[in-house]
Write a structure and sequence with these properties.
The protein is of the alpha/beta class and about 260 residues long. The protein is built from eleven helices and nine strands. The radius of gyration is 19 Å and the shape is globular.
């Protein structure tokens, strides 16, 4: 799904190329978007499916994704694998279609809340039209439901009948958690590609393009570890917030460019 200005046609085109390199046989990549300009012809572009209700402005999360649970999804049928546009495919993904039962809803694990066993919907598989009550229940009381769960992935975790299932350990990895590691490691080595990983997800910052160049955001400077620690010290002695800034450092991950490309 692509709406607004956060992602562009380039992101869709790169995702198509990564799928083509890592999936056997024929496939169809569908992009639901409000702007199809520049997207390669091989991609099946469709209008954004309607959520059919209003989510309060003070509720966080990507609630438009709940529209994917519609009983009729632009005429699509069968089993779908949803992949966020800021994900990087680093190995073959046939197994994502072969794992589990046909009617299972399988998600990545939310590694930031691992002990709560919650789902992370950067990469999830679902039977199209098989859980339409998810959209219908939200439409019945959008304010109460969205405020209760805050994030769309929490809603999915706790409301799929029969419960969600997780991808096998190691398939779907979180860039900050598994590639960058805890904050001391970020100063000692560049991000690593975990053995056995197939898709790397990028919830929050940094995104693939910035991590590839060794910066936290597009506007961040590319600094050595010593230079970044100096900026942390300057924030500390000047009384500015510094703890979060300490962890917001990434060295150049050159291996990302091998995969995140057309």
């Amino acid at each position: 799904m692509k709406w607004g200005s956060a992602y562009g046609a380039k992101d869709v085109n790169i995702l198509y190329a990564m799928v083509a390199r890592n999936l056997s046989g024929e496939f169809q990549l569908t992009c639901f978007t409000d702007d199809a300009a520049g997207i390669r012809n091989e991609v099946n572009c469709q209008p954004l499916p309607s959520l059919g209700c209003e989510i309060p402005a003070d509720v966080p999360g990507k609630w438009p994704k709940v529209a994917l649970w519609s009983r009729h999804l632009c005429g699509l049928e069968g089993t779908a694998l949803f992949i966020d546009l800021d994900s990087i495919i680093v190995d073959h993904i046939d197994c994502y279609f072969e794992h589990g039962g046909q009617n299972d809803v399988i998600t990545a694990r939310n590694w930031l809340n691992k002990f709560k066993k919650s789902g992370q919907t950067s990469v999830f598989r679902f039977p199209i039209g098989g859980h339409s009550y998810m959209l219908e229940n939200l439409q019945a009381d959008p304010a109460t439901v969205s405020r209760k769960f805050q994030y769309e992935q929490n809603y999915v975790t706790h409301n799929i009948r029969g419960g969600i299932k997780f991808w096998p350990e190691g398939w779907t990895q979180h860039f900050r958690v598994h590639c960058m590691g805890a904050w001391p490691q970020r100063y000692l080595r560049p991000p690593v590609l975990p053995p056995g990983a197939k898709i790397i997800t990028f919830p929050g910052l940094p995104g693939p393009a910035d991590a590839m160049h060794g910066r936290w955001t597009e506007k961040s400077e590319v600094l050595t570890p010593r230079q970044h620690l100096d900026t942390v010290w300057q924030r500390f002695i000047s009384g500015k917030p510094w703890r979060k800034h300490l962890s917001r450092y990434v060295q150049k991950a050159e291996w990302l460019g091998e995969h995140w490309r057309e």
